[in-house]
Amino acid sequence: MRFGIYGCRHAHIAEFVDEMLKLGHEFVGIYETELDIAKGMAEKYRVPLFDRGEDLFKLKPDVIGTSAVNNRKIDIVELCNQQGIHVMADKPIVTSREGYARLEKVIRQGRIQVGMMLTERFNPPIYALWKMIREGRLGQVVSFTIMKPHKLLEKKRAPWHFSKEENGGIAIDLLIHDIDLLRWFTGSELDSCSGYIKKTAYPQYETFYDSVNAVIKMKNGVVATLEANWWMPDSYFTFGDGRIFCVGTQGRVEVRTTGDCQAKGEPFALLIRDTETYIRCEDVAVPTTLIQDFINRIEGRKDVIISGEDVLMSSLAAIEIDESLEEVRLC
Predict the structure, then answer these.
(1) Which of 116, 279, 281, 301 gives 20 to 30 Å between its CA and that of 35?
(2) How far apart are CA 327 and CA 164, in angstroms?
(3) Does the domain made of 120-290+317-329 have the CATH classification 2.40.440.10?
């Protein structure tokens, strides 16, 4: 397949490019008018950089990847739908109810496949936890706690990152991964949510909130606490310190989704069932990759890890969580 990038405002999209190339697909070019990220990518991969989107489309790509400004991604999805081009977007793919309605229309139409970079499902210890739940090794699932502190690295962020309208805000931008995992782990949809979104600092960014804490109930009764913030110290060895705690009636699991210094950054999981202490879980091979899973969907396979319905329902759940939050402003 031939693929291109339409909108390049976050470096996450390099993961899409690298995986497509590894799978043997042809990278035909990039369209972007803001050159801070796109110029370097075009040089690295030795592809043309266009300042008009139609020039990229003239090369007849089969798949488009996008990391455009978050609230503009839906425009690209609709444009690709008109052209009959499949699209993979960095998360989040939409930031509002209006964007969700437009996304739903495209996905229900079924002309193209729409993907979102929900990379956590392909993280080996997270996949191992899903498999343990599915096999009943933890008994009945009682609750989850998911923590996602991130580095902000303010000086390296583009202005749109600090705009609620353009970025979507911390709940939609960061909790999209967590609510997607909850849907996957439980096989259930969001039932209710309450919580707080807090502005502790950065008064120069009027609509930028730096932390979120939410309590979720899924329709099957599983309860979860979600926490995300932009307060991970810059000195930490990687972008953040992700943790998932799963409580079952017959065992507990902790997943360190970004690893730790002792593990040299490799994610891992700890399990306790009938032992005196936690033991490290055996590695489990994920049967496919994010992009191969998407290609499988394009080719009509049904046994995929992420479906179009997942993209749609996880996006809706993130928006519903965001709408439920009470604001706390300290500056």
Answers:
(1) 116
(2) 13
(3) no
